[in-house]
């Protein structure tokens, strides 16, 4: 859809019909990947059939019919079967068959059978599509080295690439195509929401990562403007002489590389920072600039008598001092503590971030007890046959173990809760494998929970069989809680847990498991659904991997045997 569909009248139309209107990003064809791939296939099919190029529109119905009649590798079925519940029948397929076809007792029987078969076909097609999606994502990441790239994070300053047709210049290929700087407000999987950094504005832009470039912290917030036309001729002095009268000596200090002024904080209404013990607390004794406020304290440290002359103190603090700037002291940080965006200010000014983190660490150590700072450790063990995508949980205090990966050191002295996620299978050897997994856990783990993984279930008659297999698993010492798939969930209209995992999303399934544990008196305070990892975490992982490879691959994942052992 184009911009002609983005208006108030069309919005009322979609709200009335309860339609979610989604617009794609401009100048990014990958946002419409499915449509673009279909167009490519359609053109490729028509090339093989056309004898006269100008008759291409006559070949479209035949190409679309061929596309809908052939099973796709991604879904495993033809589009016509997934849409209408039957395979296409042309003249060749109908030759020799009876004209009557299959008969049913009544229309309801046909509808029920058709709906059941379509549901099964859609589930199988979704599994095929998810598998293909994971395969192509892995190939794309390996080809483009996405793990080695640095992406913007909220708070970063970036430049935006402007398309050539939007520049409006006479020679768009030879001029600067970058505009900015912009401030990143939030990030998604492949794009960022940005606002102008050189002025206050409510206008937001949603730009793909490929069109953004990070800029160094040494650069200021001066806007980058592209000159579209020729530069005008500047006439000089007609006599060819320049007068030096009235010029005064200017003293400047090139201190831009180590310091940058911030004239306000990041709050919607700029905060005021007051200098105490000044005469009559007059208006000249405060500032909205955190950097100038820190500079005032530096000046007062050099000359305490300046406190009696707030006007001179304010003027001196407006420009960088002819000495090395220092980060705020603890007293200055406390004086600015009423600002809600103080942490963001500290990240923007070079040298302030470390000072802020040091003060924060000292306050944590002195004000918070060790018991309050103790983190809950929750361990999730994935048994063979369970995919990581079925457990979308992420937290720094949660560890995921998988038999497909080499084992890690699993000495969990402070483990308060452990979950064993087993697959929904009824094989004879499953009970023995599950029992072996339970026996590996030490008795120090107070609560050990056994639960099945969510996913599509083809035969619900196996639900009580899996529940009985879970009940056969015993624990020699310690508490073993079994959340069987046949348990009813009151919050989900008394559906069974297996049905919740089959019809709902994985996130809803695990929220239900968390609620069931809380009813049993087992809190899961560190529960958190998996969020998109930020670029800072990706950069940290990349550095960790590079340092491990520099040591000859002797990282922690290579030094522990695959079989897990508890100490």
From TrEMBL:
Record-given protein name: Uncharacterized protein
Domain Integrase-type, chain residue ranges per copy: 165-217
Ranges for domain Integrase catalytic: 1-87
Binding region for DNA: 165-217
Keywords attached to this entry: DNA integration, DNA-binding, Endonuclease, Hydrolase, Metal-binding, Nuclease, Nucleotidyltransferase, Transferase
Listed Basic and acidic residues bias regions: 533-545
Biological processes per GO annotation: DNA integration
Phylogenetic lineage: Eukaryota, Metazoa, Ecdysozoa, Nematoda, Chromadorea
PROSITE patterns associated with the record: INTEGRASE (PS50994), INTEGRASE_DBD (PS51027)
Keyword Transferase: yes
Gene Ontology MF term list: DNA binding; endonuclease activity; hydrolase activity; metal ion binding; nucleotidyltransferase activity
Residue ranges of the region described as Disordered: 533-567
Keyword Lipid metabolism: no
């Amino acid at each position: 859809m184009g911009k002609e569909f983005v208006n108030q009248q069309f919005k009322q139309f979609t709200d009335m019909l309860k339609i979610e209107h989604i617009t794609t990003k401009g100048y990014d064809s990958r946002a419409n990947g499915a449509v673009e791939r279909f167009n490519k296939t359609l053109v490729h099919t028509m090339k093989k059939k056309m004898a006269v190029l100008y008759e291409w529109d006559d070949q479209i119905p035949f190409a679309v019919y061929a596309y809908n009649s052939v099973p796709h590798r991604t879904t495993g079925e033809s589009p016509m079967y997934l849409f209408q519940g039957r395979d296409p029948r042309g003249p060749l397929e109908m030759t020799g068959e009876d004209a009557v076809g299959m008969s049913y007792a009544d229309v309801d029987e046909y509808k029920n059978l058709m709906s059941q078969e379509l549901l099964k076909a859609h589930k199988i097609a979704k599994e095929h599509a998810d598998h293909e999606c994971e395969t192509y994502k892995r190939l794309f990441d390996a080809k483009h080295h996405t793990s080695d790239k640095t992406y913007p994070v909220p708070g970063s300053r970036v430049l935006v690439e402007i398309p050539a047709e939007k520049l409006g210049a006479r020679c768009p290929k030879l001029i600067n195509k970058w505009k900015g700087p912009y401030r990143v407000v939030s990030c998604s999987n492949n794009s960022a929401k940005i606002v102008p950094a050189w002025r206050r504005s409510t206008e937001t832009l949603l730009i793909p990562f490929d069109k953004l470039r990070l800029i160094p912290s040494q650069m200021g917030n001066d806007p980058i403007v592209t000159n579209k036309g020729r530069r005008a001729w500047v006439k000089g002095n007609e006599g060819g002489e320049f007068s030096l009268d009235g010029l005064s000596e200017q003293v400047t200090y090139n201190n831009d590389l180590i310091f940058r002024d911030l004239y306000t904080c990041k709050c919607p209404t700029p905060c005021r920072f007051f200098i105490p013990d000044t005469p009559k607390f007059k208006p000249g004794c405060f500032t909205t600039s955190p950097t100038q406020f820190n500079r005032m304290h530096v000046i007062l440290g050099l000359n305490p008598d300046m406190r009696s002359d707030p006007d001179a103190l304010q003027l001196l603090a407006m420009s960088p001092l002819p000495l090395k700037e220092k980060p705020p002291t603890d007293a200055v940080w406390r004086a600015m503590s009423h600002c809600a965006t103080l942490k963001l200010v500290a990240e923007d000014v070079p040298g302030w971030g470390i000072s802020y983190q040091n003060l924060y660490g000292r306050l944590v150590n002195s004000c918070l007890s060790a018991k309050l700072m103790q983190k809950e450790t929750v361990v999730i063990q994935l048994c063979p046959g369970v995919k990581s995508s079925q457990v979308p949980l992420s937290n720094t205090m949660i560890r995921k173990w998988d038999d497909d990966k080499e084992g890690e050191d699993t000495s969990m002295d402070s483990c308060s809760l452990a979950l064993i996620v087993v697959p929904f299978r009824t094989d004879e050897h499953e009970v023995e494998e599950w029992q072996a997994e339970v026996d590996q856990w030490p008795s120090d783990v107070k609560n050990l929970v056994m639960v099945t993984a969510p996913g599509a279930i083809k035969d619900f008659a196996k639900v009580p069989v899996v529940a009985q297999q879970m009940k056969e698993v015993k624990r020699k010492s310690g508490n073993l809680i079994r959340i069987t798939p046949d348990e009813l969930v009151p919050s989900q209209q008394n559906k069974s847990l297996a049905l919740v995992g089959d019809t709902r999303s994985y996130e809803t399934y695990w929220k239900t498991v968390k609620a069931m544990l809380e009813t049993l008196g087992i809190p899961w305070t560190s529960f958190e659904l998996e969020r998109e990892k930020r670029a800072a975490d990706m950069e940290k992982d990349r550095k960790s991997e590079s340092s491990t490879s520099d040591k000859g691959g002797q990282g922690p994942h290579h030094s522990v045997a695959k079989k897990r052992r508890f100490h």
